Each structure stands twice: as C-alpha cells, then as structure tokens.
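ARCHIVE RECORD
Type: protein–small molecule complex
Small molecule: 6-O-phosphono-beta-D-glucopyranose
Source of inputs: curated submission
Record status: active
Notes field left blank by submitter.
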Amino acid sequence: MSYKGLIFDLDGVIVDTAKYHYLAWKDLANELGIDFNEKDNERLKGVSRTRSFEIILEIGGRTMSDEEKEFYCAKKNDVYVGYINKLTKDEILPGVVEFLTHAREQGYKLALGSASKNAPLILDKLEITPLFDVLIDGTKVSKPKPDPEVFTRGADEMGFSYDECIVFEDALAGIEAAHNGGMKAVGIGLPENLPGAEIHIPGLFAMPIEEIVAKIG
Ligand code: BG6
Ligand code: MG
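STRUCTURE (tokenized, with ligand):
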C-alpha cells in the first residue's frame, strides 16, 4: 500500500497534557466532594470534555442537569487553559519534531486529529502549528472516538482516501476509531493496553516513518 497522509492524536502522542487535565478535573471533583484519583483519570483519556465530567459524576454517584454540567465543564476548562497557557516547546514529547519534519520531507501530508477544543492553542504554545497541513479538533467534529469522524475528516481535508492514511494514537478508543474509518493504526504504548493496533511503539522517537510503513505493510 502506498500511504500519503499521517494523522496524529495530540494528547499522549505529541504532548502529555493528561497531567493538566487531571489537575483541573481533580480541583473540580474535590470542590464537589468527589474522590478522584490518577487511576480514574485513565478513563478520561481520549474522551470528550462533557463525557469526562459525566464519568466523574458517575464515580461520585451524582447526577446533574445539562446546564450544571455545562457550568462545571467551563469552570474546569478555565483552570486547564491556565496550565496550557504556560506550556512551552520543552514539553513536546521526545522525537516528535524530528519525526514530523522527516515525514514531511518524505512527502507525507500531516493532519492533527484530536478531540480537544484547545488543540489549536496547544499547538501554538508548542510552536508546531506549521508542521501540520490540516487541523481537526473538538470544535470541528460532533461524534467522539471510537467514531472515526475526527480521522475521516482529516483524510477528507488532506484529499486522500482512508486506506491511504495511517493514524497515530495512544488511546484504545482512538485505535478503534482508526479501524472504524478503514485506516491502519500505530499504537503509542504497550500492546496489552492497545490491542488491535497494527504496530506498537513507545513514542515517535522510536522509529522513522519508513520503518513503520515497512512493518505495517
Ligand atoms: C482529548 C483528551 O484529547 O481531549 C481528553 O485525551 C480530553 O482527556 C479531550 O477530555 C477534550 O479536551 P478539551 O481540551 O476540549 O477539554
Ligand atoms: Mg491521546
């Protein structure tokens, strides 16, 4: 197969923002008297903001109206954006800039496929916006992963068919989303956490795109 487009998840692939999501959610959970720990936070990876809050409410055995949920999600986001505003390019995960730059030199088009509505701000703070040809974020899609919408839109905007694209993902829902869209998936993480991915690497530092393509076939 000749691949033309590479689509990258943001959180956990390009930058570790999960720790900031955790701090912001924990603040809010504590305010609401809900016990929330790092293990619970794993359940929120790759999940939309509203759904994340619903999971926290479920953990606390609480229910809320849609208006209340919206209020608290906005409050959490204010705290989260406070952390994001302090991000610098030092927090880009190892090997990311080299991988993306090399892939561009090899002729691939690159897209971001993230559930985060803060993705443009994060790329801006990391100073890597120009490395991407296409940006698909949480403001452009309505269906969360494992629905493939975030990735199929990325392929559509790059002008490639779905089987010409490879997805890079650290969340199980993201691997499933790639497959649901007819794309191959590179799992960033351990095989036991990301069953089904065509290949697993610990991070983008580990292998250049040529080697990945040779392995996934
Ligand atoms: C995903 C994260 O990338 O974006 C989730 O993995 C997060 O943890 C989601 O909830 C939505 O992010 P945001 O920035 O729009 O609240
Ligand atoms: Mg992720």
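CURATOR ANNOTATION: Strands lie at 5-8, 109-113, 134-136, 165-169, 184-188, 199-201.
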